[in-house]
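During the reporting period the student researcher (J.K.) took over the structure-prediction task from the postdoctoral fellow and processed the backlog of single-chain submissions. One of the processed entries is reproduced below for the supervisory committee.
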Amino acid sequence: MNNDFKENIKGLLQNWKTVPNLLSALRIVMVPIMAVLFVKGHPIWAVFVLFLSGLSDFFDGKIARRFNQISDLGKILDPLADKLTQITVAVLLYLFFRSAEHSPEMRAFSWVFLLFVGKELLMVVGSVVLLTMGLRPGAAEIYGKVATFAYYLVMLFIIAFGPEIGAFRNFWTAPALLLQILVVVSAVLCFVALFSYFPGLIRQLKARKLNDQGDNQ
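J.K. obtained the following structure tokens:
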């Protein structure tokens, strides 16, 4: 374990006792709860937990800025909670629609949910690599916030009104084409958000290279 990594971890633990960090930790706890409710056939409760998760995601940022409780740990926990939630929901929907009996359109479309999984895993691995290099993963930009909001909205809609899966499908079942369009739009936004992190990463790498050159002179 190099010194840069140790210093990074030490810095993350400074001023960690904040309400936003607690909310982010609660969102991480909600992930397995939501997954179990979904698998056990309680979609209404799964929708409720996912809604609470999205709501807490909205408020933790507001609280952090309003009461000056922004912390380095929060910049890690908040996106980590998002990624765990998004990966879990995408995997659950992929597995469900892959075996859907009465919705061949969604069964053929199910692989698209794996794009979300790949994108989030890539960001998790990238963040770990940056930390080991002594760099900090960038905070979510406007693109990331929009993509996360759209993701929660689309996935909530699917779990609420999707064919064979919807908690409220007896009230109204969304057409498969509509769901496919919404998922594709959400996927595009997610990858736009991914690419939006590259400029900040490049700046950090350039600054790191200049510092290393200065130390060697």
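The committee noted the following: The chain has one domain: 3-216.
J.K. will present the remaining backlog at the next meeting.
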